[in-house]
Design brief:
Elements: H1 4-14, E1 18-23, H2 26-31, E2 36-38, H3 46-57, E3 61-65, H4 70-82, E4 86-91, E5 98-103, H5 116-120, H6 139-155, H7 171-191, H8 195-200, E6 207-211, H9 218-221, H10 229-243, E7 249-253, H11 265-274, E8 281-284, H12 289-295, E9 298-301, H13 306-312, E10 317-319, H14 336-339, H15 348-361, E11 363-365, E12 406-408
Parallel strand pairs: 1-2, 1-12, 3-4, 3-12, 6-7, 6-9, 7-8, 9-10
Antiparallel strand pairs: 4-5, 5-11
Length: 409
């Protein structure tokens, strides 16, 4: 996340908190070079190390980016056993103008109420009625930070001999992947020209959209029962072939961040032929997602935040993994086989309240890569108004209340 956690430390210390940061690899050390604790032990030794750290520094709260990485998952279990709050950062449930900062866990580990009546009764906080500041185009900075992180992790691996990243970080491989991704983007711009207009034309055949997720994503590995993206593709295609009306199309959309890593063209073509729906199956890459969601008659996801975007566009969604928005009224609650013929409609009033609830409790306006204008003293984010600050027993954060907690980031 580049320098975000250094900005967060400054913001927490300005409120009176004592902050400690643990670095696991050279990429961490690059963006947090001073005042951090370098952990060079094994994963097996980590629980003992962090337990001693919590005791010695009298840590009251812990902050993580993601709760599925091996070191972070162990911290979460340890903190729960000790009754300590854990605040988990992630990319936003509502994109692109928000990031997630949630107490306890994210996605299927989220503490969000699963009863839709909670949201129906929720009276939106006045601050959630304010339009969020638009996030500037940050892909360039995200790519730069990711590249620097990869290079530093590889170059300084001798300093952190036991660290194993949750996915391979070899600079030579990443260079090949990103060059391939750029070339494919140019290729698809040519081969898919005019396709979006044909799919979204008034007289076009109705279609279901299936946005694919990044291979190896924790959303697949942890928050679903699928072994991989290909197994998800096979399950969807088989059900579509057996139960979808014959005039419907099935459109698989590749994840843009996975463009250089994977390609499912042959797999989808072979499966579609085997199931007799080759003439009704498409595989696309860089078509504009909002326009596809506007035109689709339904969306099938594992647990991607595209599911919430689908509801935002009024398009019914079927969730096949474990998602915190998989609620009666927001998502289709029947089987996938039933979805093709009777997708239903999302409850727009419920969605508006659900979105307001997220903005009030766990969605911070902004991004990890560049501070929002006017938010330089708050880690560059506009924090949710009812976000539970690292202080036991408080229902909302008070910007004027000094913090006395000790926070480990």
């Amino acid at each position: 996340m580049g320098p975000f956690f250094r900005r967060l430390r400054r913001a927490l210390r300005a409120k009176g908190a004592e902050v400690y940061k643990v670095n696991f690899c050279g990429g961490d050390a690059l963006f947090y070079p001073t005042g951090a604790i370098s952990y060079r032990g094994t994963l097996e030794e980590w629980p003992s190390f962090v337990g001693n750290l919590i005791d010695a520094r009298q840590i009251d709260a812990l902050m993580l980016f993601g709760d599925c990485r091996p070191h972070h998952a162990l911290v979460t279990r340890l903190a729960r056993a000790r009754g300590l709050p854990v605040y988990v950062f992630e990319e936003g449930y509502l994109r692109p103008d928000f990031v997630t900062v949630e107490l306890g866990g994210t996605n299927s580990f989220s503490s969000l109420p699963r009863d839709p009546e909670v949201y129906r009764r929720f009276s939106p906080h006045p601050a959630t009625r304010v339009e969020p500041q638009r996030v500037r185009h940050v892909f360039r900075w995200a790519a730069i930070y990711a590249s620097l992180y990869t290079l530093a992790t590889f170059a300084l691996r001798w300093r952190f001999p036991h660290y194993r990243h949750h996915r391979p970080l070899r600079p030579s491989r990443e260079l090949v992947v990103w060059v391939r991704s750029g070339l494919r983007k140019l290729l698809y711009r040519w081969t898919e020209r005019g396709l979006l207009s044909r799919l979204t034309a008034p007289d076009a055949p109705p279609f279901f959209l299936v946005p694919l997720q990044v291979h190896g994503d924790a959303q697949i590995r942890v928050h679903s029962d699928f072994q991989s993206v290909p197994t998800f593709i096979e399950t969807v295609l088989a059900s579509f072939a057996r139960h979808a009306p014959p005039d419907r199309l099935l459109v698989f959309k590749h994840h843009p961040l996975d463009r250089g890593y994977t390609h499912y063209g042959r797999l989808i073509r072979d499966l579609a032929q085997a199931h007799g729906v080759a003439d009704r199956t498409l595989y696309v890459h860089d078509l504009h997602l909002p326009r596809l969601l506007d035109a689709a008659c339904g969306t099938v996801v594992v647990n991607s935040t595209v599911g919430l975007s689908s509801v935002h566009h009024g398009t019914p969604v079927h969730v096949m993994g474990r998602a915190n928005y998989d609620l009666p009224g927001l998502s289709h609650q029947g089987t996938l086989d039933e979805f093709w013929s009777a997708p239903g409609e999302p409850d727009h009033a419920l969605y508006r309240n659900f979105r307001a609830w997220l903005c009030a409790y766990n969605q911070a306006n902004g991004n990890f890569y560049s501070p929002l204008p006017g938010c330089s003293d708050s880690a560059g984010l506009r924090w949710p108004p009812l976000f539970p600050a690292p202080s036991a027993g408080h229902d909302r954060a008070d910007d004027e209340q000094p913090m006395s907690q000790t926070v480990s980031v």
